[in-house]
Structures are given as C-alpha cells and as structure tokens.
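Protein modeling request. Please complete all fields; requests missing the sequence field cannot be processed.
Requester role: graduate student
Desired output: 3D structure, token encoding
Chains: 1
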Amino acid sequence: MHSMAPIKAMNKNSLKAALAILLLSLSVPLQATQIFNAGPSLSVIQGDRARFSAQFFDRDGNSGIRIRAEHVGSGQVIGEITRNDSTGDLEWTCDTSPLTPGANLVRLIATDPAGASATVPFTLQVQAASSAQHWRQTYFGSSQASGAALDSADPDRDGLSNLAEFAFGLNPTLASSEVGTRAESPPNHHEGMRAVFRRRKDHLTAGIDYIVEFSSNLSDWTPSSEIPAFMADEGDVERVKLPFPILQNGQPGRFFRVRIELHDLGQ
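Delivered output (267 residues):
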C-alpha cells in the first residue's frame, strides 16, 4: 500500500487546511479508495477567496483521476482546482461572494477511471463581511487590513489615510482633495455659519467617531457638544451640519476640523 503524508499549508488567516487523499488501484480487494485526514473546517469572510491545499495519489497514475468539489446543499460544483499530476499536489480555491453566510457543507470528490470515488467532506464557514471589510474588498480585493489596505496607509498619496477615506465615503485608490467638509452660510443668514461634513450612515456599527472641533485662532480647539443634524442622503454616507459656536474664550468659532477616531472596528 502506498501512502502520502498531508501537506501542512495552514496560514495565519486560517484560510487553508491540509488534506490527503489516497487512491488505491482497483487490484486492492474490497475497497478501491481510502481517505485520510478528512473533515477540516475553513473560515472565511464573505467575498474573500477560500482555499486549501491537498495531495492525491493513484498507483496506476494520477492523470486519469477526476477531482471536483460539490456544495452538499445545492449539489453544484463550486470553486476551482489546480493540480499537478506529477507531484500529486492540488489547490482548491473558491469565491465566497455568492455563498450564504453560515456553515456551508462541501465535499471534495476524487474519482478513478473505473468509477471508484474517494470523498473528503469539510465545512466552509462563511462570515458576513462588515462594512469596512466589504469596503476593502471593493478597493483592495480582500477584507484584510494589511499592506496598502491598512487603516493608516495612503495608497493614492492624497494625504488621507484609508480610515479617513472610509469614514468620508471616498475612493482610496483615486487621489482627491475634496472630502465634502466645508463651512457655509445658510440661506437664512440669521442662523449663522454652519460646519458641513459627510458621515457614514453606519458609523456606529463601523466603530467610527467623528469629533468636530472649532477654533477662533487655529491654535486652540474645542470639541463640539452638539449632535450633527441631517442634511442630505448621499448613498453610504449622509451630509450633516453643526452650527459654529461661541467658544469658551468668548470668541466665535471661525474655523473647524473633523477628526476621525476608530473606537471598535475590530476588522
């Protein structure tokens, strides 16, 4: 009997698991196929690609072996398999965008020319993407906050971090100096000046704090205690406003800025 040891290919994001499939020739009595190390569980953010590495072997040659992955619930073939018949290595990858969040049961099936099959079942646990993770997937192709997708990174070099681009609803790959923050005089001049800025509609669940500060001299800054009022819907963000206050030094606010803080994004 021939056997192959499983490839250990776990990565830090737990997106890979190791499997080993041993296919025996039809000359072996009673049982044509055997499976080892069955039952891994993969966990992935919806929209990211799930993957694992595996090995397959047949005494009569690997080239005649058919390998596929099936979604147990639908019976549909899912994912893509790349293989090397010489070494017996294979890798399964799957776009999880169309999958339902939760536990998805999948089986990897290897079938020899005579129709005997070896099956490895596994669970693909799909987690719903947060708004920040979905935003990273849209612009960087992955939910992971790493490399150019770090919250502190500025890949378009426009002076705004990814965190600020996310908070103001901007494209982090397209340089722009327009963030939608401005001071304006309302049509009714009796109301006085107001500060206007864009804010994510889901800022509370996204863990984003918008701290609006006013100053009379660009040196001393006072956080506003007012709650921003809604002005307009702009898709993922909304335009809001705050009145310019009289500051503690008795001077009217003449300047304002919006600081972005991340209090519990955790993604």
